[in-house]
Amino acid sequence: xxxxxxxxxxxxxxxxxxxxxxxxxxxxxxxxxxxxxxxxxxxxxxxxxxxxxxxxxxxxxxxxxxxxxxxxxxxxxxxxxxxxxxxxxxxxxxxxxxxxxxxxxxxxxxxxxxxxxxxxxxxxxxxxxxxxxxxxxxxxxxxxxxxxxxxxxxxxxxxxxxxxxxxxxxxxx
Length: 173
What we know:
Elements: H1 27-36, H2 40-51, E1 61-66, E2 69-74, H3 78-81, E3 86-92, E4 95-100, H4 106-118, H5 124-142, H6 162-172
Antiparallel strand pairs: 1-2, 2-4, 3-4
């Protein structure tokens, strides 16, 4: 497996073609956008992607390169979300990174994906993503030019306060 070399210059900010635009916005709109993201461009993209149907990429799983590193991006399908120890981290544009709970490994993930593919109950739409992911993992494992390194990502998970849940139920009544 050979990782695609990025072109010269800065990597794409949104992972797809984009261009600079100048726009004048009311101060209150700017303040609301900054609550979504400190980077106004990212805030506009995030807000737009939430409010419009997702643009589905042609590939159900793909390798996204940055420098001499790469990550696997997948469509966040139910079959992957249900695998033990797998968390999907949204990255925009209807794509997600795969995070493994400790002590999970890439080998465990590949085996779980293959086991899921062997089940006849796997939905056809999920099957395409799982097959593409299995091929990427196999090619990386067999490649002499690529090493697989597991990394830790930081995920912040909101805690639901007990009192808040009770107040929410009381308000709905």
